[in-house]
Specification:
16% strand; five-stranded antiparallel beta sheet; flat; 6 helices; 2 domains; alpha+beta
Length: 203
């Protein structure tokens, strides 16, 4: 019975990550395909009796490529900000667009400099240490009011290190780790189950 249980959990640990990865990819594919290609496929089905699987995804890729080409070669550096300012005039857009743009820009940035420094801070109370990411230096007004050199730290939450708590703490109380950002993300996502490969505190 023990061997059967061991075989079962070994198989589960092997199959489950693969299954979930494929499921998420298929789900994303279907969502994009339905949003972009849904109208055209409905027309093709009603007019000609067939639809094209993946048409929405193909169109989405083409739209992204055309937009990238237009921004890179056709739209001037002055024209794009004018278009964005016009876009921000619509109700609700002003509250959502800037934040979404920053998040998307960060996710797809070639160099995620903001998350390169992994730190230890005493949070939420003294004697309790949390792993976080130093994202920036403290802004001037906060440092002038506190009389301390502050740093911005994001304390990621399990299982999503991208969400959590933003805090400002004195730089002198921050412990800098040599742990790479991807190792820290694995640590947070797993709830501490996956240990970092190594690293020690910087001097």
């Amino acid at each position: 019975m023990k061997k059967i249980k061991r075989y079962f959990f070994t198989g589960l640990l092997t199959i489950l990550p693969t299954f979930l990865t494929l499921y998420i990819l298929i789900f994303i594919f279907k969502v994009i395909d339905n949003i972009v290609g849904g109208v055209i496929n409905k027309y093709l089905m009603s007019a000609f009796g067939f639809s094209i699987p993946g048409l929405g995804l193909i169109m989405a890729v083409l739209i992204i490529l055309v937009t990238g080409f237009a921004v890179s070669h056709l739209l001037s550096k002055r024209a794009l900000p004018l278009i964005e300012r016009w876009f921000l005039k619509f109700p609700g857009i002003r509250q959502l667009y800037p934040s979404i743009k920053q998040i998307v820009g960060f996710i797809f940035a070639k160099e995620k400099a903001a998350f390169k420094k992994v730190v230890l801070v005493e949070y939420p109370s003294q004697g309790i240490w949390s792993v976080g990411f130093m994202t920036n230096d403290g802004f001037r007004e906060a440092q002038e009011l506190t009389g301390q050199e502050l740093v911005h730290v994001l304390i990621g939450s399990t299982p999503s290190p991208w969400s959590g708590f933003f805090i400002m703490v004195p730089k002198s109380s921050v412990k800098f780790l040599r742990m790479p950002a991807d190792e820290a993300i694995k640590l947070i996502v797993s709830g501490g189950i996956l240990k970092p490969n190594g690293g020690s505190r910087q001097a």
